[in-house]
Structure formats: C-alpha cells, structure tokens
Amino acid sequence: MKRIFTAIAAAVLLGVPAMAQKYVIDTKKTSLVIDAEEGKAPAFRYYGARLAEGDLVGAQLNTDKRSAYPTRLDSAPTPDALSVEMPDGNVTVDLRVESASISALEGGKELEICCKDPLYPTFKVRIHYRSCEAEDMIETWTDIVNEGKKPVVLHRFDSGFLPIDEGDVWLVSLHGSWGNECKLVTEPLARGTREISGHNGICNNAIAHSEVMFSLDGEPRENSGRVIGAALCYGGNFELRVVTKNDSAHRFLAGICPRDSWYTLGKGETFTTPKLAYSWSDEGMGGVSRNFHRWGRKYMLTHGGEPGDILLNSWEGVYFDINEEDMHRMANDIKAIGGELFVIDDGWFGSEKYPRNDDKQGLGDWSVLPEKLPHGIQGMADYCKSIGIKFGIWIEPEMCNIGSELYEKHPDWVIGAKGRDIVPGRGGSQLVLDLCNPAVQDHVFGVLDNIMKQAPGVSYIKWDCNYLINSPGSPYLKNQNHLYIEYMRGLTKVLDRVREAYPDLAIQLCSSGGRRVGWGLLPWFDEFWTSDNTDALQRIRIQWGTSLFFPAEAMACHVSASPNHQTGRLIPLKYRIDVAMSGRLGFELQPSKLSEKEREICKNAVADYKTIRETVQCGDLYRLMSPFDKKGVASLMYCSPDKTQAAFFWWRTEFLRGEHPPRVPLAGLDPDMNYRITELNKVEGEPVMALDGKVVSGRFLMSNGFRIPGKSSYFGSNDWHSHVLRLDAVK
Ligand code: GLA
Hints:
The protein has 731 residues and is of the alpha+beta class. The chain has 3 domains: 70-300, alpha-galactosidase from lactobacil brevis (Beta-galactosidase, Chain A, domain 5, Distorted Sandwich); 311-618, TIM Barrel; 622-730, Sandwich (Immunoglobulin-like), CATH 2.60.40.1180. It contains 12 helices and 39 strands. The strands form 7 sheets. Strands 1, 7, 8, 9, 10, 12, 13, 15, 16, 20 and 21 form an 11-stranded antiparallel beta sheet that branches. Helix 4 (324-336) runs parallel beside helix 5. The longest helix has 23 residues, at 596-618. The radius of gyration is 26 Å and the shape is globular. The two termini are 41 Å apart. Alpha-D-galactopyranose (GLA) binds at residues 315, 345-346, 359, 394, 464, 466, 510, 512-513, 529, 532. Alpha-D-galactopyranose binds at residues 315, 345-346, 359, 394, 464, 466, 510, 512-513, 529, 532.
C-alpha cells in the first residue's frame, strides 16, 4: 500500500505572530485555515483558492467560526461529527485545543491538533489535516483516544467536517445498481439534510457512492466554475451528510455509518477514523477529477502510474465451462491480437464433492479441478509464459457456499445472526465468511497465498466479492455492534499481508462489477472491474460517472460479444472497441467466435491502443460532452501531462435523421502547439475524418473542435458512429 510519507524536519509553525493560533496548509492552488488556540475549540476558518500573503489579515475568512470537529456543545449548533457516551452516562463532549503543530512530509504537510475535554481530561481527540501539494488534495482524519480506566461508547465518529459557506451550491453524487453503476445525480442543495449512505457491510458502493462534488457556482460545469470534491476513503458502511440551514450555508460531514456500529472504546484504546480526502478546483468538475486521478495514481493505487496490461478474461467467453484445451486456445488468441495477459475467471476450482460448475457450490474449496486444468494453475502459467504472455486467475476468498467442504468443517466461520436461519445469497447458497475471526483471516489470506505458492507464475489476481451482509452476526465477536467495523479491519489486515507477501502482483478489485469501487479498498489494488454490464452504449455512461473520481488506469473496460450478454444489444465491433479503448482496454469474449476480419480489427485496435495507452491511462482527463446531457453525442479526451499527445474519443449515443451532431471544442491542449491528427481504429483502413493526417493548432481545436460527419460511412446503421483520434504535437 502506497500510503507512507516520510516525515522530515521538525515541526514547522506557520502563521503571523499576531494571529499565531491560525494554521495554514497550502497546496499548489488552495489553502486551508484552521484556528487552534490553546484552551479554545478548534475552528474551521477557510478552504478554497490559495490565499496570498496578507489575505489572512484582510480576507473575510469564515467569520462564523465553526468548530473544526463539531460536537453537541457548540454555541452555533451544527450537526455533530463526534458524539459519545462517557462512562458516567454524560452524552456531551467538549473539545479544547491542547497543542497544535505542522510538520513537513514528502509531498506536503501535516497539521495535527491535539484536543481534550476539560471535564474528562483522559478523553482526547487528535485532528489531522494532511496536504498533497502538487495534487491539490487535503486528507483529514481523527484519532479518538480513551486514556481513562473505563470504556467510552462512540455513537458517532465522523472522519471530517467541511463547512461550505456559499449560496447556490449543487451536489453531484453517484448512484446505481448492478449493471448500471455510477449514474450521475446532479441537484441543487435545498434546505434540510441530504444523506448518502451505504450499509450492506462489505460492498458499499452498490447503490450510492462515498464520493461527492459540490459545485459552488450553481449548476456544475465540466471545465469551469469552482467545485469541491470529497471522498470518504472507507470500504465499510459509510454515511455522508449535507445539512443546509436557513442561513444557506452548508455543512458537510462524512464518516463510518454509526447505525448498528456504536463503538465501545476500551481503556487505553485509540480509534482512528478513515480518511476524508477533498480537493478544490476552479476548473469545474474536470479539475477536481484530475486532482483525484493524480492523487490516486501517486498515493493510493498499488502500482499507480504503471499502465495496465491488455488482457482477455474468460468469463463471458466460456463462463463455468473451463477446460485446458480451450484455455490454451484463448491464451493464444489474445497473444495473436497483441494482448499481454490471459485471465481464467470463475469455475476452475472446488472439491471432488463440490466441483464449481455453476454458482451454487464450491466456493471455499480452492483446489484446482483436475478434470478442468490437469496441469494445474502453474501449468497454465507456464503455458502462457511459453507463448509470451502473463497469466492471471479469479478468486472470491471472503465467501463460501453451503455446498462446500469448508462450510461442512467450519459452520461457525460464516456471518449470520445468532438463532436465526442463515440467509444465503448468489446461487441460493452463498455465505460471507466472518473476517472478524483471526482464523478466518488466515484462511482468506491462505486462499491467495496457496495459489501463489503452488503457482508463482501467476501475475494477476481478480479478487471478487459477490455477496453482502444481510443477517449481521459474528459467531466470533462478543460485541455485535462491532461487526461491520471489525469485518473491514479483518479484511484490511488480510490485504496488508497480501501486499507484504506479493508486492508485485497485479490485483483487480471486483464485486459483481463495481460495487466496491471506492478509495477505501483501492489502495491494495491495481484496478477494478467497472461493471458486469459490458454493453458499450451503457458503458459510456457507467465509465463517465466512474471517471469523476477514478482514473482510467484503474478502470477495466472490456470488449465483449454482440449481441451483448447483459442487454441483448447488437453493436458493431468498432464501436465496442472505441468505448473500451477509453479505459484499461481488455477483451471478455470467445475469440474463436470472431471472424478473420474481426480478429484483424481487434489486432489493429490493440496496436493503435498501445500508441495512446500511456496518455489514456496516466494522462489528464477532459470530459467534453456528457452522455447525461442527452445531446446525442458523448465525448472526452486525455492529454499527456506535457501536452505533447492527446487521445480524443467521440461516440454517437443517439441518431436522429436531420439532426447534425454538435461540434465539440477540445480542452487541455497547449494553444501554442500544433498537433498532427491520426484517426485510430480504422475499420477498413480508410479514415473517415477529413482531418486525418492534417496538422492543426491547439488553439483552433480548443475553440472549434472537429466537424464530425453527420453520418457514419462504416456501417449500415448510423447509430453506431464513433471516432478515436490521436493528436501528436509537431515541431
Ligand atoms: C461476478 C463478477 C464477474 C465474474 C463472476 C464470476 O459477477 O463481477 O465478472 O467474475 O462474478 O462468477
């Protein structure tokens, strides 16, 4: 996990002598100001555009000083971030600053404010703010400390509080369901409380997401206007609240969802909340996305900044019907079109009694089925190596089926409320293992560890999670209120062990598609499976929403068969490829069903993708025309950080005769550079864009964009009209 900064130098205190209690954390373009005066409540004073020298004195910081970490005792009542029950039953807490310091870290600074309650001096809270300067990101979290002899019960323990003192603020959030992830929801903030939460225990981005944006200048725009983006970095139950009172100021709080999770903080114990990460930009939603992407690549993703391989996954090609001969053929097929990795999905394992031939049994029994892979996993890895590609495999280690030897042996290892019938999930038989239990943690780690020991040639793992907690109860825990929190602790302990033992392994995070896509779990992973829905038309929307916070490098986008297995839609191969090429390109089909001509199209596309892979996966994203705006077109582009290359994507989302597609001005280019335009993924080898091969200035492209023909000449139908263009700076 790439989360460790090196602390350097002794504490550096910033600020003007006359207002020594003010602590300023600057990033490249933003400033955060907190008042921390000894004996007083810590106060949140400012977050926004970077302050110049003198602004601290002259600027109107938030005059209405709000507690930086509100509790019920605040004079101007704010929803509380912290709520506790003291050992004597007192349900109030009063935080007063004891000390504060700023220390320099690699890439930024950290402000730590130590507070205690004068009435209960053994109850302490340390509030942290850490900056990632180049990425314009702030991370905040708290340590809640009980130095007393008796337990304190935490009723609410948010990660952070952010007041937004603006009028016409709009909220942007992501909402979805299986196969329809990350739909953009844009709404003006009305008075009252808006709550966004996830509380299914283990795959909490199934419906709502713990990431939001606030547009401070009315309805949000892509590349202009002031926007704050915030992400609670937690894979477990979460709750975001935006409270808007009559004064029209908004208070944003985010943390672990306290519902069913009151936490008993024992003697001498410290509870550290997950991080809340936020970013301010005056370049609209796109500016915030780019900050999150840069930060995600640098500090969060394992192997961030290293582009992912082009792969073939076996799932939609063969489902459970795995046999070695077919697997060899598929490995050869992906190699032949220029791919670099072959992944065997579900269905390769089980036990003699419970072979995994469908989703009803076998989870938990992680032995290779010899009838499917007679030479084992290492045999497959060796084979792939011999033909010059890498090999990966699917696991779902946090689960078992009722039909498994594991469950027969350890019925007490599964989650389920005491005295109640078990409530199985997928296949009518799937159960969640109780990761609160250290023995189960060993088992889950062992699933991956055993694979890697018997097959060290495996270089990629798809880690799936297809069920959730719907009958909460841990046979292991004494305090059932701790179940959700201890599950996540158990999981992260396992993932720490995995990363320590296998630092180079690429691991994909999957949960029936994108139900775990979030910055809570991604730090242990390289990428995520964006959605089980591989229909290119719907993927444009899913990938669009996902791109608000997550970089293309991590977004697995696979070309699948037509008709599509989820929607039945018939979509030409070029369009499917043009959509998948805007993320981490892969394939999820049976290549033997492709015609020679289709294989050729795939081969050319892979070769073309390799010329823009770095720019797509590690460049700066500019979303240009949203599929949610219903203009009949969606378009986005990526620019390399030095702006010498760009990749432009344009997809028709609706064709109506007589309606000309809107012109899309580009963004992010250098106005003073000239760019040679190359059309990629040409199906017949012929360009359709009149500009193919021409040189045009960045300035022209950013004010005019391309004139794209009203009709596609490739296919009989105009519905499936798309273009991918590469722009290379020329001297
Ligand atoms: C989940 C995943 C799919 C596939 C299946 C296998 O649904 O999202 O990609 O791996 O499980 O059972």
